[in-house]
Amino acid sequence: MNLSMAEAGMLGVLDVSVSEEALTVELSDGRTLSVPIGGYPRLAYVREEERASWTIIDGGQGTHWQELDEDVSLTGLLAGLASREGQLSLQRWLDRRSEDREFLAAP
């Protein structure tokens, strides 16, 4: 699918939900787009409350999870693109999260 930024600009993200199975986005034209969560590993590895802590960015052209340092663009979703994060990058991120939790849990 070839989708220009101008064409995507006519659409916008209205709402987002993330379950253990899918990332679901409600669009301004009434459509709902749902993609497997496996394509977005940072969303797949976090708690429900972290998945729910998102904001709309770029005038509806994407979503951002501040705590996860994760952005998902509407253009990418419409084109069927998953996260481009590599395994090494993901593992480093998971390791940092684990270290942070150990530090926070220490008395």
Indicate the topology:
Layout: H1 5-9, E1 13-18, E2 22-27, E3 32-36, H2 41-44, H3 48-51, E4 55-57, E5 62-65, E6 70-73, H4 74-79, H5 87-105
Antiparallel strand pairs: 1-2, 2-3, 4-5, 5-6
Enumerate the strands of the largest sheet in spatial order, edge to edge or round the barrel. Answer: 1-2-3
Outline the biggest β-sheet: 3 strands, antiparallel
Q: Using only CA atoms, what is the Rg?
A: 15 Å
Mean pLDDT, as a whole number?
87
Number of strands: 6
Beta-strand share of residues: 25-35%
Cα(first) to Cα(last) distance is 53 Å
Structural class: alpha+beta
Number of helices: 5
What would the principal axes of the Cα set say about the shape? elongated
Helix content: 25-40%
Low-confidence stretches: 103-107
Order of helices and strands: HEEEHHEEEHH
Can you describe what's shown?
It is built from five helices and six strands, in the order αβββααβββαα. It has helices at residues 5-9, 41-44, 48-51, 74-79, 87-105; strands at 13-18, 22-27, 32-36, 55-57, 62-65, 70-73. A hairpin with a 4-residue loop joins strand 4 (55-57) and strand 5 (62-65). Mean pLDDT is 87; it is low at 103-107.
